[in-house]
Design brief:
Subcellular location: Cell membrane
Membrane topology: Multi-pass membrane protein
InterPro entries: Cation_efflux (IPR002524), Cation_efflux_CTD (IPR027470), Cation_efflux_CTD_sf (IPR036837), Cation_efflux_TM (IPR058533), Cation_efflux_TMD_sf (IPR027469), CDF_Transporter (IPR050291)
GO biological process, one term: intracellular zinc ion homeostasis
Shape: elongated
Organism: Enterovirga aerilata
Oligomer: single chain
Distance between the termini: 43 Å
Largest sheet: 4 strands, mixed
Helix content: 55-70%
Length: about 300
């Protein structure tokens, strides 16, 4: 089990712990806002389990049916997570709408808020770790899970502040109103997670800063070539696919041209982790006098 899978497995345990704390807070208080917060944690448990499953699939090596590997599997986890978040938000909106017409007095608010606050601290620490590790390990599933938890943390903070005000000023109507605000925030969070993941599924190009680095590496390491053009990139999970045309002098042997390609590939893989490079070699009469000039 690699680091990605270990983190995903640990996320299930953390999600169960946070769910238990938030459900206890709801049980103690009867608050609709705390119920909405606990319901989102149910989604966290499901998505953490899905993330582990898809990360295991993504870790499988390329095979005859998937010659480019299985890394896109992580995007399906993120899309499913976004969809489940939206479903949870709609359920919360329904619950809050009903509570508007039947406001409930909050029981033991101090204890409930303290328990929910402890759950928020756990979530905050784990979301920070997941986002940081996910970016380092180039795992879309871990980053998506971390961003969702971060949204959960912000939601919980808002709920705590609002319920504190409802308790202090004896305004029970604030409880369902806060639940509705939580639901709208969750909807926005779910949409952002899905939007980022769909970009990967649609073979979105590498980020501008990565493209700039790729151009610099090709220019600095293709000694003996003339130019490179028609550069294309796409990313799939932790993999970055790079392909371009490399123009070389017509008098070069196949072996010499191959050596130049090897040097460029080594440099790209050193600078862009998990890069898969494809180079199409062309003679000098195919030069477009545009694209990447070799230094």
């Amino acid at each position: 089990m690699d680091k990605r899978q270990k983190l995903a497995a640990a996320s299930i345990g953390v999600a169960l712990l946070v769910l238990g704390l938030k459900w206890l807070a709801y049980h103690v208080t009867g608050s609709v806002a705390l119920f909405s917060d606990a319901l989102e944690s149910v989604i966290n448990v499901v998505t953490a389990a899905v993330a582990l499953y898809t990360i295991r699939i993504a870790a499988q090596p390329a095979d005859a049916n998937h010659p480019y590997g299985h890394t896109k599997a992580e995007y399906f986890s993120a899309v499913l997570e976004g969809a489940l978040i939206i479903v949870a938000a709609l359920l919360i909106l329904r619950e809050s709408w009903e509570a508007v017409f039947q406001p409930r007095r909050i029981d033991a608010p101090g204890l409930g808020l303290a328990i929910n606050g402890a759950a928020g601290v756990v979530n905050a620490a784990w979301s920070w770790l997941l986002i940081r590790a996910g970016r380092r390990l180039r795992s879309q599933a871990l980053v998506a899970d971390g961003k969702h938890l971060l949204s959960d943390v912000l939601t919980s903070a808002g709920v705590l502040a609002g319920l504190g005000a409802a308790w202090a000023f004896d305004l029970p109507i604030l409880d369902p109103a806060l639940a509705a605000v939580v639901a709208l925030n969750i909807l926005w969070s779910g949409w952002k997670v899905m939007r980022e993941s769909l970009g990967g599924l649609m073979d979105e190009a590498a980020p501008p800063e990565t493209l700039a680095r790729i151009r610099e590496v090709i220019s600095a390491n293709a000694e003996g070539a003339i130019e490179a053009h028609d550069l294309r990139t796409r990313h799939a999970g932790r993999m970055t696919f790079i392909d371009f045309h490399l123009v070389v002098p017509g008098h070069l042997t196949v072996s010499d041209a191959h050596d130049i390609c090897d040097a460029v590939e080594r440099a790209l893989r050193a600078d862009v982790p998990d890069a898969l490079v494809t180079i199409h070699v062309e003679p000098e009469n195919k030069a477009k006098h545009s694209g990447i000039v070799v230094l």
